[in-house]
Each structure stands twice: as structure tokens, then as C-alpha cells.
Write a structure and sequence with these properties.
alpha/beta
């Protein structure tokens, strides 16, 4: 029953093996960030979140912030995208001491291409993608802990 519930939860995401949509947006420090340009040697992890106050979103950012050294060790860069305005992203990054870029996605334009958020129902948007160095999706779930994502790149 749990496997069936997870399948339903993850159904709408882009399929494994698909080419990940490219984007170029500003991060919380005002830098221009592009997925392929910011990718680590092994690839990227994309976190999509919708708020700076929902417990699950804050937990997602805390978990991946704590695990960030493990991702860097295997050549992965983390980018977190949200429709939250730039100023709020900046303060969120400072408050949680997030070591990776928080990327401002106005109107969730790129997040919706990943089927991670939909305006006006963006409050339900949360997803985690793993994208390899060739730009292909190797991991896609609505919820995932860092160990699950790292495992997708190890084998």
C-alpha cells in the first residue's frame, strides 16, 4: 500500500531518462544561475520548494544543507528553486545558513516545466530531481531524503 501511495505521489514528475529543461535565473545573491552551467562534475540536484514558512519546506532545506558536503564530495551541486521573491529567498538563505544557491523562479515558470509547481496552487509544489552530467534525469520524486538521491548517482 505504501509503494502504491508513493507511485501516485510521484506520477506527475518528468520521467527518468528525459532531458532536464534548462533554465537561467537569479539566485538569492543576485547571481545568474543556469542548471548546466552550475552543475557539478557528476551533475545537479534540483530541489523545488514553495515557501519560507512551511515546516516541510524548511526541513527539506535543512536536510540538504546538512548533507551538502556529501553531495560535493561526489561532484554534485544542489540548486533550490522557488517562486518566493528574491528578498525573502535572501533572508531564508541567511536564516537557515543554506550553503547552495536558492534560485528565484518568477511565477514558477521553470518549476512548472519540471511539473514541480503550478500557479496558483504552488503551495503544493515540492520535488527533488537528480540530473546527471549529460543533462538526463536520473532521479525524480516529490519527497526524498539526501541518501536516496545520492544512491541514485552511485549505481
Amino acid at each position: 500500500r505504501t509503494a502504491q501511495a508513493l507511485t501516485m505521489l510521484n506520477r506527475a514528475l518528468l520521467p527518468l531518462g528525459a532531458v532536464a529543461p534548462e533554465f537561467r535565473l537569479l539566485d538569492h545573491q543576485g547571481r545568474s544561475i543556469g542548471m548546466s552551467r552550475q552543475a557539478g562534475e557528476t551533475g545537479s540536484v534540483l530541489l523545488f520548494f514553495s515557501s519560507d514558512w512551511l515546516k516541510d519546506d524548511l526541513q527539506l532545506l535543512r536536510q540538504y544543507s546538512q548533507a551538502y558536503p556529501a553531495f560535493q564530495q561526489v561532484g554534485l551541486e544542489i540548486l533550490a528553486l522557488s517562486g518566493i521573491n528574491w528578498e525573502r529567498l535572501y533572508h531564508l538563505a541567511k536564516r537557515l545558513e543554506v550553503p547552495f544557491p536558492l534560485v528565484f523562479d518568477p511565477c514558477c515558470r521553470y518549476s512548472s516545466r519540471y511539473q514541480a509547481m503550478w500557479v496558483p496552487k504552488f503551495i503544493n509544489g515540492r520535488a527533488v530531481y537528480g540530473v546527471n552530467a549529460q543533462g538526463k534525469i536520473v532521479f525524480a520524486r516529490k519527497q526524498a531524503n539526501p541518501a536516496e538521491v545520492l544512491a541514485a548517482f552511485s549505481g
